[in-house]
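Sequence only, no structure available. Ideas?
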Amino acid sequence: MDYISRHMERKFAHMSGFFKAVLLTGARQVGKTTMLRHLCAGQNRTYVTLDNKMARELAQGDPVLFFQTYKPPILIDEVQYAPELFGQIKILCDESDEPGLFWLTGSQQYKMIKHVRETLAGRVGILTLYSLSQTEKAGVAFANALDFSLPCLQSRQSKTPKNDVVQVFEHIWRGGYPQVLRADAEQRQAYYDSYVNTFLLRDVAELGGVTDALRFGKFLTACAALVAQQVNYKTLAEAADIAQPTAKDWLQLLDGLGIVYLLAPYANNALKRLAKTPKLYFCDTGLAAHLSMWLTAETLRNGAASGHFFENYVIAELLKSYAVSPSAAAMTYYRDANAKEIDVFLEENNRIHPLEIKKSANPDRREVKKFAVLEKTSVQTGAGGILCMCEAPVPIDAQNCFIPCNLI
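Reply:
I predicted one. C-alpha coordinates follow.
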Protein backbone atom coordinates (compact mmCIF):
# COMPACT_ATOMS: atom_id res chain seq x y z
CA MET A 1 0.00 0.00 0.00
CA ASP A 2 1.28 3.49 -0.87
CA TYR A 3 2.48 5.61 2.05
CA ILE A 4 0.00 8.29 3.12
CA SER A 5 1.69 11.50 4.19
CA ARG A 6 0.95 12.42 7.82
CA HIS A 7 0.58 15.98 9.13
CA MET A 8 2.54 14.89 12.24
CA GLU A 9 5.76 14.50 10.16
CA ARG A 10 6.54 18.23 10.36
CA LYS A 11 6.05 18.44 14.12
CA PHE A 12 7.95 15.23 14.86
CA ALA A 13 10.97 16.32 12.78
CA HIS A 14 10.87 19.76 14.44
CA MET A 15 10.89 18.22 17.94
CA SER A 16 13.61 15.73 16.96
CA GLY A 17 15.83 18.68 16.06
CA PHE A 18 15.40 20.04 19.59
CA PHE A 19 14.94 17.16 22.08
CA LYS A 20 17.40 14.29 22.51
CA ALA A 21 14.47 11.85 22.73
CA VAL A 22 11.01 12.05 21.14
CA LEU A 23 8.18 9.72 22.19
CA LEU A 24 5.29 9.21 19.75
CA THR A 25 2.28 7.79 21.55
CA GLY A 26 -1.12 6.69 20.32
CA ALA A 27 -3.36 3.68 19.87
CA ARG A 28 -2.13 0.57 18.11
CA GLN A 29 -2.32 0.48 14.31
CA VAL A 30 -2.67 4.24 13.82
CA GLY A 31 0.58 4.30 11.82
CA LYS A 32 3.25 5.37 14.36
CA THR A 33 5.91 2.90 13.15
CA THR A 34 5.06 3.42 9.48
CA MET A 35 5.48 7.17 9.80
CA LEU A 36 8.77 6.97 11.73
CA ARG A 37 10.26 4.36 9.40
CA HIS A 38 9.30 6.65 6.52
CA LEU A 39 11.11 9.55 8.25
CA CYS A 40 14.10 7.22 8.89
CA ALA A 41 14.60 6.59 5.17
CA GLY A 42 18.15 7.55 4.23
CA GLN A 43 19.18 7.92 7.89
CA ASN A 44 21.60 5.61 9.62
CA ARG A 45 19.14 4.81 12.43
CA THR A 46 18.91 1.43 14.20
CA TYR A 47 15.41 -0.07 14.43
CA VAL A 48 14.20 -2.47 17.14
CA THR A 49 10.72 -3.47 18.29
CA LEU A 50 10.00 -4.66 21.82
CA ASP A 51 7.17 -6.76 20.40
CA ASN A 52 10.11 -9.08 19.67
CA LYS A 53 10.40 -11.33 22.74
CA MET A 54 14.22 -11.61 22.71
CA ALA A 55 14.74 -7.85 22.33
CA ARG A 56 12.18 -7.20 25.07
CA GLU A 57 13.84 -9.59 27.53
CA LEU A 58 17.25 -8.04 26.84
CA ALA A 59 15.83 -4.54 27.37
CA GLN A 60 14.16 -5.54 30.62
CA GLY A 61 17.09 -7.54 31.96
CA ASP A 62 20.18 -5.58 30.86
CA PRO A 63 19.56 -2.05 29.49
CA VAL A 64 23.32 -1.35 29.21
CA LEU A 65 23.87 -4.43 27.01
CA PHE A 66 20.71 -3.55 25.05
CA PHE A 67 22.23 -0.22 23.95
CA GLN A 68 25.59 -1.85 23.21
CA THR A 69 23.68 -4.20 20.89
CA TYR A 70 21.31 -1.59 19.42
CA LYS A 71 23.29 1.65 19.19
CA PRO A 72 21.78 5.17 18.98
CA PRO A 73 20.57 6.94 16.94
CA ILE A 74 17.75 4.45 17.34
CA LEU A 75 14.02 3.93 16.81
CA ILE A 76 12.53 1.76 19.58
CA ASP A 77 9.00 0.48 18.96
CA GLU A 78 6.54 -0.37 21.78
CA VAL A 79 8.83 1.05 24.45
CA GLN A 80 6.10 0.68 27.12
CA TYR A 81 7.13 -2.99 27.44
CA ALA A 82 10.54 -2.07 28.94
CA PRO A 83 10.38 0.96 31.24
CA GLU A 84 13.75 -0.31 32.53
CA LEU A 85 15.31 1.41 29.46
CA PHE A 86 14.42 4.95 30.54
CA GLY A 87 17.19 5.28 33.15
CA GLN A 88 19.83 4.23 30.60
CA ILE A 89 18.31 6.53 27.94
CA LYS A 90 18.72 9.40 30.43
CA ILE A 91 22.42 8.55 30.94
CA LEU A 92 23.05 8.35 27.17
CA CYS A 93 21.19 11.64 26.59
CA ASP A 94 23.35 13.35 29.21
CA GLU A 95 26.56 12.01 27.62
CA SER A 96 25.71 13.53 24.21
CA ASP A 97 24.80 16.96 22.83
CA GLU A 98 23.13 15.46 19.77
CA PRO A 99 19.36 15.96 19.39
CA GLY A 100 17.09 13.21 18.04
CA LEU A 101 19.16 10.29 19.41
CA PHE A 102 16.12 8.33 20.56
CA TRP A 103 12.88 7.96 18.64
CA LEU A 104 10.38 6.00 20.73
CA THR A 105 6.85 4.74 20.11
CA GLY A 106 4.40 3.42 22.68
CA SER A 107 0.74 3.29 23.55
CA GLN A 108 0.06 6.30 25.76
CA GLN A 109 -0.47 4.26 28.87
CA TYR A 110 -0.68 6.50 31.94
CA LYS A 111 2.05 4.76 33.98
CA MET A 112 4.51 4.86 31.10
CA ILE A 113 3.97 8.57 30.39
CA LYS A 114 4.40 9.36 34.10
CA HIS A 115 7.63 7.30 34.17
CA VAL A 116 8.97 9.00 31.02
CA ARG A 117 8.19 12.48 32.36
CA GLU A 118 9.88 11.74 35.69
CA THR A 119 12.97 10.06 34.24
CA LEU A 120 13.53 12.09 31.08
CA ALA A 121 12.36 15.55 32.17
CA GLY A 122 13.78 18.19 29.82
CA ARG A 123 15.18 15.56 27.48
CA VAL A 124 12.01 14.21 25.85
CA GLY A 125 9.25 15.62 23.67
CA ILE A 126 5.94 13.71 23.81
CA LEU A 127 3.59 13.74 20.81
CA THR A 128 0.34 11.87 20.11
CA LEU A 129 -0.59 10.39 16.74
CA TYR A 130 -4.21 9.56 15.96
CA SER A 131 -5.68 7.55 13.10
CA LEU A 132 -5.92 9.27 9.70
CA SER A 133 -7.89 12.51 9.58
CA GLN A 134 -10.27 13.35 6.74
CA THR A 135 -7.72 15.81 5.32
CA GLU A 136 -4.88 13.26 5.42
CA LYS A 137 -7.06 10.78 3.54
CA ALA A 138 -7.88 13.46 0.95
CA GLY A 139 -4.23 14.52 0.66
CA VAL A 140 -5.11 18.08 1.76
CA ALA A 141 -2.74 20.16 3.91
CA PHE A 142 -3.91 23.61 5.01
CA ALA A 143 -1.16 26.24 5.10
CA ASN A 144 -2.86 28.50 7.66
CA ALA A 145 -3.50 27.87 11.35
CA LEU A 146 -7.13 27.36 12.31
CA ASP A 147 -8.59 30.40 14.08
CA PHE A 148 -12.25 30.02 12.95
CA SER A 149 -12.30 33.53 11.42
CA LEU A 150 -14.03 34.05 8.09
CA PRO A 151 -10.80 34.86 6.14
CA CYS A 152 -9.11 31.72 7.57
CA LEU A 153 -12.09 29.53 6.60
CA GLN A 154 -12.39 31.05 3.12
CA SER A 155 -8.68 30.45 2.49
CA ARG A 156 -9.12 26.77 3.50
CA GLN A 157 -12.27 26.45 1.39
CA SER A 158 -10.23 27.14 -1.76
CA LYS A 159 -8.00 24.10 -1.04
CA THR A 160 -10.68 21.43 -0.62
CA PRO A 161 -13.81 20.10 -2.37
CA LYS A 162 -17.24 21.11 -1.06
CA ASN A 163 -18.62 19.40 2.03
CA ASP A 164 -20.56 16.26 1.19
CA VAL A 165 -22.65 14.36 3.76
CA VAL A 166 -22.20 11.00 1.96
CA GLN A 167 -18.40 11.34 2.02
CA VAL A 168 -18.37 12.54 5.65
CA PHE A 169 -20.38 9.53 6.82
CA GLU A 170 -18.24 7.19 4.72
CA HIS A 171 -15.23 8.58 6.63
CA ILE A 172 -17.09 8.25 9.97
CA TRP A 173 -18.13 4.66 9.26
CA ARG A 174 -14.83 3.48 7.78
CA GLY A 175 -12.60 5.16 10.34
CA GLY A 176 -9.00 6.25 9.96
CA TYR A 177 -6.91 3.14 10.64
CA PRO A 178 -4.64 2.93 7.56
CA GLN A 179 -5.35 -0.78 6.98
CA VAL A 180 -9.11 -0.30 6.49
CA LEU A 181 -8.84 2.43 3.87
CA ARG A 182 -9.25 0.11 0.91
CA ALA A 183 -11.06 -2.74 2.67
CA ASP A 184 -14.51 -3.83 1.55
CA ALA A 185 -17.30 -4.18 4.15
CA GLU A 186 -16.44 -7.82 4.93
CA GLN A 187 -12.71 -7.13 5.28
CA ARG A 188 -13.42 -4.07 7.44
CA GLN A 189 -15.62 -6.15 9.75
CA ALA A 190 -12.87 -8.80 10.06
CA TYR A 191 -10.23 -6.11 10.71
CA TYR A 192 -12.14 -4.53 13.59
CA ASP A 193 -13.04 -7.93 15.07
CA SER A 194 -9.36 -8.80 15.04
CA TYR A 195 -8.38 -5.37 16.42
CA VAL A 196 -10.66 -5.81 19.43
CA ASN A 197 -9.89 -9.49 20.06
CA THR A 198 -6.15 -9.38 19.40
CA PHE A 199 -4.68 -5.99 20.26
CA LEU A 200 -7.21 -4.52 22.66
CA LEU A 201 -7.86 -7.58 24.79
CA ARG A 202 -4.14 -8.38 24.94
CA ASP A 203 -3.24 -4.83 25.94
CA VAL A 204 -5.92 -4.51 28.63
CA ALA A 205 -4.83 -7.86 30.06
CA GLU A 206 -1.12 -6.93 30.04
CA LEU A 207 -1.40 -3.29 31.09
CA GLY A 208 -4.54 -3.28 33.23
CA GLY A 209 -4.85 -6.85 34.44
CA VAL A 210 -8.30 -7.23 32.79
CA THR A 211 -8.82 -10.93 32.05
CA ASP A 212 -12.61 -11.17 31.67
CA ALA A 213 -12.87 -10.82 27.89
CA LEU A 214 -16.65 -11.29 27.79
CA ARG A 215 -17.41 -8.52 30.27
CA PHE A 216 -14.81 -6.23 28.73
CA GLY A 217 -16.40 -6.76 25.30
CA LYS A 218 -19.80 -5.74 26.73
CA PHE A 219 -18.17 -2.71 28.36
CA LEU A 220 -16.64 -1.60 25.02
CA THR A 221 -20.01 -1.94 23.28
CA ALA A 222 -21.68 0.09 26.05
CA CYS A 223 -19.06 2.83 25.59
CA ALA A 224 -19.81 2.98 21.86
CA ALA A 225 -23.53 3.36 22.65
CA LEU A 226 -22.70 6.45 24.75
CA VAL A 227 -20.62 8.44 22.22
CA ALA A 228 -21.01 12.21 22.53
CA GLN A 229 -22.81 11.86 25.87
CA GLN A 230 -21.79 12.53 29.46
CA VAL A 231 -20.09 9.50 31.03
CA ASN A 232 -22.52 7.47 33.13
CA TYR A 233 -20.57 4.92 35.16
CA LYS A 234 -23.79 3.33 36.45
CA THR A 235 -24.98 2.58 32.89
CA LEU A 236 -21.54 1.25 31.85
CA ALA A 237 -21.26 -0.92 34.99
CA GLU A 238 -24.74 -2.41 34.54
CA ALA A 239 -24.14 -3.17 30.84
CA ALA A 240 -20.98 -5.14 31.63
CA ASP A 241 -22.18 -6.56 34.98
CA ILE A 242 -19.28 -5.00 36.88
CA ALA A 243 -18.93 -2.61 39.84
CA GLN A 244 -18.89 1.16 39.17
CA PRO A 245 -15.26 1.62 40.39
CA THR A 246 -14.25 -1.12 37.90
CA ALA A 247 -16.10 0.72 35.12
CA LYS A 248 -14.13 3.85 36.03
CA ASP A 249 -10.82 1.95 35.93
CA TRP A 250 -11.65 0.33 32.59
CA LEU A 251 -12.60 3.64 31.02
CA GLN A 252 -9.31 5.18 32.22
CA LEU A 253 -7.51 2.22 30.67
CA LEU A 254 -9.22 2.81 27.30
CA ASP A 255 -8.35 6.51 27.58
CA GLY A 256 -4.71 5.60 28.27
CA LEU A 257 -4.58 3.27 25.27
CA GLY A 258 -5.82 6.03 22.97
CA ILE A 259 -9.14 4.28 22.24
CA VAL A 260 -11.48 6.80 23.85
CA TYR A 261 -11.17 10.51 24.52
CA LEU A 262 -12.77 12.06 27.59
CA LEU A 263 -13.69 15.69 26.95
CA ALA A 264 -13.40 17.54 30.24
CA PRO A 265 -16.08 20.01 31.35
CA TYR A 266 -15.19 23.69 31.38
CA ALA A 267 -14.33 25.07 34.83
CA ASN A 268 -14.39 28.73 35.77
CA ASN A 269 -14.80 30.32 39.19
CA ALA A 270 -16.95 33.11 37.76
CA LEU A 271 -19.55 30.62 36.52
CA LYS A 272 -21.38 28.64 39.18
CA ARG A 273 -22.74 25.08 39.15
CA LEU A 274 -20.99 23.78 36.06
CA ALA A 275 -21.01 20.10 35.06
CA LYS A 276 -18.17 18.01 36.49
CA THR A 277 -18.61 14.87 34.36
CA PRO A 278 -16.58 14.37 31.13
CA LYS A 279 -18.16 13.50 27.79
CA LEU A 280 -17.18 10.29 26.03
CA TYR A 281 -15.84 10.11 22.47
CA PHE A 282 -13.95 7.49 20.49
CA CYS A 283 -10.64 8.60 18.96
CA ASP A 284 -11.64 6.63 15.86
CA THR A 285 -15.27 6.70 14.73
CA GLY A 286 -14.86 3.55 12.62
CA LEU A 287 -14.21 1.44 15.73
CA ALA A 288 -17.25 2.98 17.47
CA ALA A 289 -19.43 2.28 14.40
CA HIS A 290 -18.20 -1.33 14.33
CA LEU A 291 -18.95 -1.85 18.04
CA SER A 292 -22.43 -0.35 17.53
CA MET A 293 -23.10 -2.76 14.62
CA TRP A 294 -23.70 -0.12 11.95
CA LEU A 295 -23.02 -2.35 8.94
CA THR A 296 -22.94 0.34 6.24
CA ALA A 297 -22.21 4.06 6.07
CA GLU A 298 -25.74 4.64 4.73
CA THR A 299 -27.51 2.98 7.69
CA LEU A 300 -25.33 4.98 10.08
CA ARG A 301 -26.09 8.23 8.22
CA ASN A 302 -29.85 7.60 8.36
CA GLY A 303 -29.86 5.99 11.82
CA ALA A 304 -30.93 7.36 15.20
CA ALA A 305 -27.32 7.81 16.35
CA SER A 306 -26.15 9.84 13.32
CA GLY A 307 -26.08 13.16 15.24
CA HIS A 308 -23.98 11.66 18.03
CA PHE A 309 -21.57 10.09 15.55
CA PHE A 310 -21.29 13.38 13.65
CA GLU A 311 -20.40 15.16 16.91
CA ASN A 312 -17.82 12.45 17.71
CA TYR A 313 -16.33 12.88 14.23
CA VAL A 314 -15.94 16.67 14.66
CA ILE A 315 -14.34 16.27 18.11
CA ALA A 316 -11.92 13.65 16.73
CA GLU A 317 -11.00 15.89 13.77
CA LEU A 318 -10.32 18.81 16.13
CA LEU A 319 -8.17 16.53 18.29
CA LYS A 320 -6.16 15.42 15.25
CA SER A 321 -5.84 18.97 13.96
CA TYR A 322 -4.52 20.40 17.24
CA ALA A 323 -2.19 17.42 17.87
CA VAL A 324 -0.09 18.56 14.88
CA SER A 325 -0.59 22.31 15.30
CA PRO A 326 2.35 24.54 16.30
CA SER A 327 0.35 25.95 19.23
CA ALA A 328 -1.35 23.99 22.00
CA ALA A 329 -5.09 24.32 22.67
CA ALA A 330 -7.25 23.12 25.55
CA MET A 331 -10.58 21.58 24.55
CA THR A 332 -13.53 21.47 26.97
CA TYR A 333 -17.33 21.57 26.81
CA TYR A 334 -19.73 23.84 28.72
CA ARG A 335 -22.78 22.68 30.62
CA ASP A 336 -24.49 24.39 33.55
CA ALA A 337 -27.12 23.33 36.08
CA ASN A 338 -29.90 24.54 33.75
CA ALA A 339 -28.68 22.03 31.10
CA LYS A 340 -27.51 24.88 28.87
CA GLU A 341 -24.74 23.27 26.82
CA ILE A 342 -22.10 24.46 24.35
CA ASP A 343 -20.41 21.57 22.55
CA VAL A 344 -16.82 22.86 22.49
CA PHE A 345 -14.71 25.57 24.04
CA LEU A 346 -11.32 25.71 22.31
CA GLU A 347 -8.93 27.73 24.46
CA GLU A 348 -5.80 29.05 22.78
CA ASN A 349 -3.62 31.98 23.87
CA ASN A 350 -6.11 32.88 26.66
CA ARG A 351 -8.87 33.20 24.10
CA ILE A 352 -11.90 30.90 23.92
CA HIS A 353 -13.44 29.89 20.59
CA PRO A 354 -17.00 28.69 21.33
CA LEU A 355 -18.33 26.06 18.90
CA GLU A 356 -21.60 24.24 18.41
CA ILE A 357 -21.80 21.01 16.36
CA LYS A 358 -24.85 20.25 14.19
CA LYS A 359 -25.29 17.58 11.52
CA SER A 360 -27.64 19.87 9.58
CA ALA A 361 -26.52 21.80 6.47
CA ASN A 362 -28.66 24.71 7.61
CA PRO A 363 -28.66 24.90 11.43
CA ASP A 364 -30.51 27.52 13.46
CA ARG A 365 -28.30 30.62 13.70
CA ARG A 366 -29.80 31.43 17.12
CA GLU A 367 -27.60 28.67 18.60
CA VAL A 368 -24.75 31.19 18.93
CA LYS A 369 -26.79 33.27 21.44
CA LYS A 370 -25.69 30.69 24.06
CA PHE A 371 -22.13 31.99 23.69
CA ALA A 372 -23.16 35.05 25.74
CA VAL A 373 -22.35 33.06 28.93
CA LEU A 374 -18.71 33.90 28.26
CA GLU A 375 -19.43 37.59 28.88
CA LYS A 376 -19.62 36.75 32.61
CA THR A 377 -15.99 35.61 32.63
CA SER A 378 -12.73 37.49 32.28
CA VAL A 379 -11.54 35.39 29.32
CA GLN A 380 -11.50 36.85 25.85
CA THR A 381 -13.81 35.35 23.26
CA GLY A 382 -12.38 34.52 19.85
CA ALA A 383 -14.10 33.67 16.58
CA GLY A 384 -16.48 30.72 16.81
CA GLY A 385 -19.65 29.40 15.25
CA ILE A 386 -21.53 26.30 14.26
CA LEU A 387 -19.58 23.38 12.81
CA CYS A 388 -21.99 21.75 10.41
CA MET A 389 -22.61 20.22 6.97
CA CYS A 390 -22.88 23.58 5.13
CA GLU A 391 -20.90 23.77 1.87
CA ALA A 392 -19.13 27.09 2.42
CA PRO A 393 -18.38 29.36 5.39
CA VAL A 394 -21.12 31.94 5.96
CA PRO A 395 -21.03 34.73 8.58
CA ILE A 396 -23.70 34.64 11.33
CA ASP A 397 -22.53 37.82 13.08
CA ALA A 398 -19.26 39.71 13.55
CA GLN A 399 -17.71 36.90 15.64
CA ASN A 400 -19.33 33.69 14.39
CA CYS A 401 -19.76 31.70 11.19
CA PHE A 402 -21.42 28.61 9.86
CA ILE A 403 -18.27 26.44 9.53
CA PRO A 404 -18.11 23.51 7.07
CA CYS A 405 -16.86 20.51 9.06
CA ASN A 406 -14.32 19.59 6.36
CA LEU A 407 -12.31 22.78 7.02
CA ILE A 408 -10.94 21.68 10.40
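The first helix runs from residue 8 to 16.
Hope that gets you unstuck.
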